[in-house]
Amino acid sequence: MISVTRQLHKSKTAFMLMVCLLAWYNAFSQGSQTIRGTVLELETQAGIPGAKIVILGDSTKEGRTMTDDDGIFKFTNVPIGKKSLKISAFGFPDKTVDVEVTSGKEVVLKIEMEESASEIAEVEIVAVQRGDVNNEMAMVSAKTFNVEETNRYAGSRGDPARMASNFAGVQGADDSRNDIVVRGNSPLGVIYRLEGVDIPNPNHFAIAGSMGGPVSILNNKTLGNSDFFTSAFPAEYGNSNAAVFDLKLRPGNTEKHEFTGQFGFLGTEFMAEGPINKQKHSSYMMVYRYSTLSIFKAMGISIGTSAVPRYQDYCFNFRFPTKKGGLWSVYSLGGMSGIDIKISDQTKPATEFYGDDDRDQYFATRMAVAGVSYAKTIKEKTFFKWTISGNHERSQSHHDYIIRHVNTSDNTWILDSIYKMMAYQYDINRISTAISANHKISRNHTIKFGVNGDFFMHNMIDSALNDLHTAWVTRWDYSGTGIQLQPYISYKWKPTDKFSMMLGVHSNYFSVSQSISPVEPRFGMKYKANDKHTFSLGAGLHSQTQPQYIYFYQVYDTTGKAVIHNKNMDFTKSIHAVAGHDWAVGSAFRIKTEVYYQSLYNIPVEINSSPFSLNNMGSGFSRFFPDTLQNTGTARNMGVEFTMEKFFNKQFYLLFTASLFDAKYKGSDGIERNTDFNGQYAVNILGGYEFKTGKKSTLSLGTKITTAGGRWYGYVDTAASNYYNELIYEDEGYNTRQFDPYFRLDFKINFKINAKKVTHEIALDLLNVLNTKNILGLSYAPDPTDPTADPIIKNYQLGFLPLFYYKIDF
């Protein structure tokens, strides 16, 4: 805590010095910028000619323009600051887009508009509400997010996953990780999709069988507007029971070279974008980030621990338009990370935040995605897209067991011996493809169909010493391939601008377990009663594979032969039903309510009677080693969610979300229990205000208050824990006890200056300002200096943590 406090004082001093310098610089600076973009028809991606764009509040001639024959528009010399653009086109509802204009970078927009269902003379077309999602088939439980939101919200750390935890029905499981729990489901139920293709876990230090991590590989500067679905998602999304991140990479600037540099606690990075060929409108965008803490260590600067996390990541996107309206994209995303926790180097008894006190641990991960996509609008009625990508993910670790004792004369450690006790490496390589087509039959009827395919190549090896450390046991030794196919078709009927309906079917096949789910119906409906009130319904059947390393875990039969005993696990399935109401109180304010019910079945549980369920797995840094599993477990989630949102307008924003829910499950013992993630309630209050401190500078203050029900746990089997040297719970009474409620207050300060052609930004994100001690869980950690002490201790979440960054756009 002392080292953190010293860092905080240094951060405050550096922050105030930077503010003073930038304020002085601002007195001699000025700036304006360009706003340009393309207005497209949502379903066919065809440019809309003749659309009128108006900068609201600007009554001059320069504040109005129209799109050309390709749907392209451009404003020049726009004064910096927050702006609202109103887009109007014949046959389309009006749409309002909010942007922030800075001197450092041009504002480049992709604006999608959905055609009215009726002729303009027959019905008054109502403006589109703020916050509507990009996907034309989404009717319910969907939210769009953008880069500004990931930057604006206090405590989000620029991470899309942590930003999403502010949505109703979504909560984080651990301050040190970005696992997200959606409506009481396991984080395993979340999938990430990039450019239409499912991708591996995009997080550093990603343990096998999880979809989260401490630091995101995703860089918010590279993302365009993306969608997040929490229930009853459209038929094109599969292999998920909880939520879908549908991520989009933004293109680089096609007219101007622009650069960004950023230095902060979470990373030092550089970004470049610009035209490859201005005449052909081709562009590049690329970014690279390296761990700042690793830089500090290389410079000899102590950060209070020897276990310094190492990580680096990158992303690029190259786009090449063709003469006949097609678009080729070449993109890649990847990262690698590692950490060494060397207990054997300790000279005095101490407790590492991560790791056990009887072993040295070396852990590393990496992932990469590289793909090519081609998209084309055909005769302004059909939009076709094809993507092929290669994916790689690896997690590896080895542990060295140490034997030592305490020298009672000076209370220091003496190392007696050290030897290897465990090592593993999991490699999953994948070739993925996605083919889709949107065909607009008429203004009232649209059909979308396609298929996603994956070819897996598995290579997994794991061996460890037995409990007595007398012999090695091989737990994984598998090399093989597998195929997953997911075809789908959706139909959208929009007879009027007030009513729309989606019907779809998804199929799922996985060759490793010979699992097939041939018909998964999807349904969505939306009814706009008037300008203010919209009602929605959604339902669907969904299926998902299990974490892939679990399929290949091997045990030994009575003859000593290794048997892969979980390879035949079937899909986990779930039925979603949700109803919602959206009340547009004003142009920048809305209230949204949803109620839902989810029934899960085919959940893997143990054959022997026990409370174990795969429904409780998926968070934290530990793998699990299940006994033989069968798909007989069940679960159900139900709840109500409330969102009150005031979009950023007139210098401030407000977001209030509240969720009341109940999540229960049954293991093989047939007893209904609370799931590990059944917090029962979660509340988020976020707000922020932007002050103009000068003609070209702003100071933004933001705060976030989060409270949620505590995690569930049971009674510890002390004898078993002592024998296995790890925490073991008793079956009886499992998940009948609950930790204290979670509470956290965050605060963010952001200062921005727009100099001539350059934007400076410095921010300080203060996490857990009150230093609240939130319990994460229990662990087995006997005190070697006091054998009589209770070996079961409470682990706490992160305390007060100040994070800073300085960014420059030019």
Number of helices: 6
Tally the beta strands: 45
Strand content: over 45%
Please report the distance between the alpha carbons of the first and last residues: 38 Å
What would you call the shape?
Answer: globular
Give unreliable regions as ranges: 1-15, 22-29, 121-126
Main sheet: strands, sense, barrel: 22 strands, antiparallel, barrel
Evaluate the radius of gyration: 27 Å
**Assembly state (oligomeric):** single chain
Helicity range: under 10%
Round the mean pLDDT to the nearest integer and report it: 88
State the secondary-structure class. Answer: mainly beta
Spell out the key features of this protein.
810 residues, mainly beta, 6 helices, five-stranded mixed sheet, 22-stranded antiparallel barrel
Structural write-up:
It is a single chain. The protein has a 22-stranded antiparallel barrel. Strands 8-15-16-11-12 form a five-stranded mixed β-sheet. The chain is built from six helices and 45 strands. The model is unreliable at 1-15, 22-29 and 121-126 (pLDDT under 50). With 810 residues, the protein is mainly beta.
